[in-house]
Amino acid sequence: MTASIGLTIYPLDEADGDTLLRHADQAMYQAKQQGRNRYHLFDVHEDRKASGKWEILEALGATLRNDELALYYQPKADMR
Known about the structure:
- This protein is mainly α.
- The chain has 2 helices and 2 strands.
- It has helices spanning 17-33, 44-65, and strands at residues 5-7, 39-41.
- Strand 1 (5-7), helix 1 and strand 2 (39-41) form a beta-alpha-beta unit.
- The mean pLDDT is 88.
């Protein structure tokens, strides 16, 4: 039997009770992904960086779905 524990600290993670539980749950899944029988401390700054990356990926996906990108090929040749 193993234990995976997710932690969050209230003064550092200024959120309501439901959000604190969700953050602890996210930290627990991180601990499980790292090999189980571990603990992981939820980091607010890392979560903000990760959500920023997801926002960028979502915006890029919307750009692709709306055909807002164009690809141009420019061959490079040595003229000597």
